[in-house]
Amino acid sequence: MRPVLLLASLLWVGSLSAQSTHLYKSVHADGTVTYSDSRPAGQGEVTEMNVHSGGDDVEQQGAKRMDEMRAASKSLEERRAAEAEARSKREKEIAEARQEVAEAERNLVTTQRSKHNATPDRIATAEERVRLARQRLKEVQGR
């Protein structure tokens, strides 16, 4: 626990000075690991570590990254909202085109059954309206 406190203290002091700090990690024969700011003499395996404290630079980089993430998140939300609006608009157009087909088909059936309005011209006009309504529905669905 004591070596960890030493390391934490050294890192904290290093962050105040915003300079690099040399640390030495030594592993003793019994497996104990020690961190020190001075090179231990006559101890087992020693590794020199160069710890860079970023100070204000790290904070600035972190703040910049957070701003970038906020901007990306906002952009994603705006894109999703635009896509949802486009989907809603398309669904509305399809519903309107289907309604137009249904009305044209009802009008055709009514015209065909009518004794007074069942002239060939009126039936042809009603059939043309059905054809055009179906064509519009296919166009709207194809977008």
Question: Can you describe this structure in just a few lines?
Answer:
The protein has helices at 2-17, 56-113, 120-142, and strands at 20-27, 33-36, 45-52. The protein is α+β, with helices and mostly antiparallel strands and 143 residues long.
Name the descriptors.
alpha+beta, 3-stranded antiparallel sheet, 68% helix
What can you tell me about this protein's structure?
- The protein has 143 residues and is an alpha+beta fold.
- Helices cover 68% and strands 14% of the residues.
- It contains three helices and three strands; from the N terminus they run αβββαα.
- Strands 2-1-3 form a three-stranded antiparallel beta sheet.
- The longest helix is centred in the middle third of the chain and has 58 residues, at 56-113.
- The model has no long low-confidence stretch (mean pLDDT 81).
Total number of strands: 3
Poorly predicted regions are: none
Helix content: 55-70%
String of helices and strands:
HEEEHH
- Give the number of domains: 2
* Average pLDDT figure: 81
Q: What fraction of the residues are assigned to beta strands by DSSP?
A: 5-15%
Rg computed from alpha carbons, rounded to a whole number of angstroms: 39 Å
CA distance, first residue to last residue: 66 Å
Please count the helical segments. Answer: 3
